[in-house]
Amino acid sequence: MRQGAVRLNDVSITYDRLLAVQGITGSFEPGSLTAIAGPNGAGKSTLLKAVMGELSLSSGSIERGTSKGSRFGYLPQAAEIDRHFPLSVADTVMLGMWGRTGAFGGVSREAARKGRDALQSVGLEGLERRHIGTLSAGQFQRVLFARLLLQDAEIIMLDEPFTAIDAGTTRDLLAIVKRWNGAGRTVIAVLHDFDQIRAHFPQTLLMARRPISWGSTETALTPENLLRARTMAENLHGHPPGEGFAA
Amino acid sequence: MSFYAAVIHPFVEYGFMRRALIACVALGIGSGPIGVLLMLRRMSLVGDAMSHAVLPGAAIGFLIAGGLSLPAMGLGGIVAGLIVALLSGLVSRTTVLKEDASFASFYLASLALGVLVVSLRGSNIDLLHVLFGTILAIDATALYFVGAITSFTVVTLAIVYRPLVVECFDPGFLRSVRGGGAIYHVLFLFLVVLNLVASFQALGTLMAVGLMMLPASVAQLWARTLPVMMLIAAGVAAVSGLLGLIISYHFGLASGPTIILVAAAAYCLSLLFCPSGAVRRLFPARI
Question: Which residues form the ABC transporter domain (chain A) (predicted)?
Answer without folding.
Answer: 6-234
